[in-house]
Write a structure and sequence with these properties.
The chain has 17 helices and eight strands. The structure holds flavin-adenine dinucleotide.
């Protein structure tokens, strides 16, 4: 029986109240376009080639997909979005979305930019603005090769080869510097989860940072748990034991996981069992169990549910009500990506829950991989795009913006 009769995600007036009529119509057109699988399949290739040939397409991207899914090209550019979301009690998580760095110079530059997001979050909080977290990917700070070798070391004790030791030490130092700054600025920081073959090293560094900075009742560092992976709740149990023994707090961001096809393909190629749950319903069940697990261990655990799944959000809200927890309990957050599932973010925030959206930013060209992934995951008409279109259509009709839309 639902414990939150007043919580509903159907209210499109609340869901889209941050969008002007023009923005609403633009979002509708965009989701219609990315609903076409063929277009999304060839689009990235056409765009990448056009940009390589210096054809003037970046303006088109900037005023369409980029404008919908990103805050701007820089932190400064993204400030109006921080204010706009903040007006409706939705927080911002500045996400520097430049991927694919290869050189030490690029890794160092990425680390510096993440530190700027920490500073920006600290300053925003001091000015009474809602920028409750910041975020980074460890793979932006060092090469996959180094992280892969270090992960082998975590799994079966193989040492990092001497030629990669200095590179690994630099990645570690960058992670440490970011977390140290976050601790000084009292800004909570998410460490994103990535592919299983580099995740061992990420988990190891994340726990080390939690043990260092999540002290005296504070939870600064949050590691991400992908619930599409098998055996994750056991890993959470083991970590909880170490946290209790070591006297530190745990921060978890719970997600289902973004690399399913890649993971499965790699396991097949290597002749290994897949690390991913056999079916969607098993992932869903594990996600909801993990969230309930967090609610049961709030003496040590704080968490954020990074999801666009309505049933999971409702289950967490119900679990909170059953345990007599306040909706604005600061140990519990919900998060969605900018431009997606506003019906969850804005309705949850209006009902008094803690919500923040990832607001990606970066130069248009450098954010293309991020934008292609958003387009790709929105192609399924039965999934996200279909739901977004239904909601947008309902709101367009409610506002009397005319035209026949189906
Ligand atoms: C704020 C936020 C932060 C995020 N951070 C990360 C991150 O750090 N790392 C990361 O990997 N992802 C991250 N994601 C993406 C996330 O992992 C999901 O890919 C995405 O949110 C879709 O899942 P969902 O919970 O929204 O719900 P749904 O749309 O209900 O679930 C889709 C997900 O279910 C799983 N799934 C689908 N089909 C199957 C199947 N046949 N068998 C098993 N499982 C299946 C997959 O994980 C798929 O992505 C983040 C998402 C958000 C909103």
């Amino acid at each position: 029986m639902a414990q939150n009769p007043s919580l509903s995600f159907d209210n499109t007036e609340i869901a889209f109240r941050s969008l002007s009529d023009a923005e609403l119509l633009r979002a509708y057109t965009l989701f219609r376009m990315i609903g076409f699988r063929g277009l999304v399949k060839i689009g990235p290739r056409i765009l990448t080639t056009a940009m390589r040939w210096h054809l003037p397409v970046s303006g088109i991207v900037k005023h369409t997909v980029f404008k919908h899914f990103c805050g701007g090209e820089s932190i400064e550019d993204s400030r109006p979005m921080v204010d706009r979301l903040g007006r409706f009690n939705v927080g911002t998580i500045l996400d520097y979305s430049v991927e694919g760095g290869r050189t030490e110079r690029e890794f160092e530059a990425a680390a510096k930019e993440v530190m700027r997001t920490v500073d920006a979050a600290g300053e925003a909080a001091a000015a009474g603005k809602n920028v409750p977290f910041t975020v980074f990917k460890v793979s932006a700070l060092g090469s996959h090769r180094v992280l892969e070798f270090a992960s082998l070391g975590v799994a079966d004790g193989q040492p990092v080869p001497p030629r990669l030791k200095a590179d690994y030490a630099r990645v570690h130092e960058r992670v440490q510097k970011i977390c140290q700054l976050a601790s000084e600025r009292k800004v909570r920081v998410f460490i994103d989860a990535e592919e299983t073959w580099i995740q061992g090293a990420i988990d190891c560094m994340a726990e080390e940072m939690m043990a260092k900075f999540n002290r005296e009742g504070k939870t600064i560092v949050y590691n991400t748990v992908q619930l599409y992976r098998t055996g994750r709740i056991q890993v959470m149990d083991e970590q909880l034991k170490r946290a209790r023994d070591g006297g530190f707090n745990i921060g978890f961001k719970l997600v289902r996981g973004a690399y399913m096809e890649k993971e499965r393909a790699r396991a097949i190629k290597a002749g290994l069992p897949s690390p991913i749950q056999p079916e969607k319903s098993a992932t869903d069940a594990q996600f909801d169990r993990a969230a309930a697990w967090c609610l049961d261990h709030l003496d040590v655990v704080s968490f954020c549910a990074g999801t666009h799944n309505e049933a999971s959000c409702l289950a967490i809200a119900d679990g909170m009500a059953r345990r007599g927890l306040a909706r604005n309990d600061l140990r519990i957050w919900f998060s969605q990506l900018l431009g997606m599932s506003d019906h969850l973010s804005f309705n949850l925030a209006a009902a008094g829950f803690n919500v923040a959206k990832y607001v990606p930013y970066g130069p248009v060209r450098a954010t293309l991989p991020y934008l292609f992934r958003r387009a790709e995951e929105n192609t399924s008409v039965s999934g996200q795009a279909g739901r977004e279109l239904l909601l947008l259509t309902k709101e367009i009709r409610r506002r009397g913006l005319g035209g026949r839309r189906s």
